[in-house]
Design brief:
Methane Monooxygenase Hydroxylase, Chain G, domain 1, 3-stranded mixed β-sheet, alpha+beta, flat, polyphosphate kinase like
Length: 256
């Protein structure tokens, strides 16, 4: 005959199940911005993979750069708008807008360093396969003369320098444009002025100009920077820098 279980004196009834993890804890959630950057890292890994065809690697590296432009315009721009509005609400993973910007900046800095290494590797491999991306200083005198003549005839009429001084405020910089910032002075005058020159890429103007008989190219901005005497005759060039700004594509709030 089966025996019936007799409760002991210490038995206080059914025991409560042990408490499980709280789904509200921030450690169980991923950040939207950081996971997007992780996705871009995967694209960068394809560009770095030597098993990928060479020109495909170049394309994937360009996609990484394009994606980062969009990230700054949309995601970082949106977070900065939240900062400007004084928003300090936490995301589901426990980050404020300020912390998200700081964390994304740290990841992007690492990504840029890796992207630079991949770019230099690709430039070397392209050269080994007969495709050269050359610096203007590496060209022969004959190639420089031919490039200058081509620049004067086909591109120079599209170039308009904009000076910056007390009478001319800082000019509008169009989104994603490539620009040259030039510091100039007149002979025998110590005072300098600055001018912005937009590189007119697009509308039939290529970023890279062919040189020689093979598959060799020179960036247009280098040709422009080494022929500034056409834009500023009789002036001395103290410095010349290249810059590019991915501007926000988020509509500003209405006035008032």
């Amino acid at each position: 005959m089966a025996r019936l279980a007799v409760p002991s004196a210490d038995d206080s009834g059914p025991q409560a199940a042990p408490a499980g993890p709280d789904p509200r804890e921030t450690e169980f959630y991923l950040n939207r911005e950081l996971t997007w950057l992780d996705f871009n890292y995967r694209i960068l890994s394809i560009a770095a993979d030597t098993a990928t065809p060479l020109l495909e690697r170049v394309k994937f590296l360009a996609i990484v750069s394009s994606n980062l432009d969009e990230f700054f315009m949309k995601r970082i721009g949106g977070l900065k708008q939240q900062l400007g509005a004084g928003i300090t609400d936490l995301t589901v993973d426990g980050r404020t807008p300020r912390r998200q910007i700081d964390d994304c900046t740290a990841v992007i800095r690492r990504m840029y360093r890796q992207k630079r290494r991949v770019y230099l590797d690709l430039i070397g491999e392209l050269a080994e396969n007969g495709i050269g991306i050359l610096a203007y200083d590496d060209l022969s005198d004959g190639d420089r003369a031919r490039l200058r003549a081509d620049y004067v005839e086909n591109i120079f009429p599209l170039v308009t320098p904009l000076a910056m001084d007390t009478a001319h405020p800082f000019p509008f910089i169009s989104n994603l444009s490539l620009n040259i910032l030039v510091t100039l002075n007149y002979p025998a005058e110590p005072e300098t002025i600055m001018a912005r020159v937009k590189v007119p890429v697009g509308s039939g103007v290529p970023r890279f100009l062919g040189v020689g008989e093979g598959h060799c190219f020179v960036p247009l901005e280098e040709v422009m920077a080494h022929n500034l005497d056409l834009l500023f005759p009789g002036m001395g060039v103290a410095s010349c820098e290249l810059f590019r700004v991915p501007g926000p594509s988020i509509a500003p709030p209405p006035p008032g």
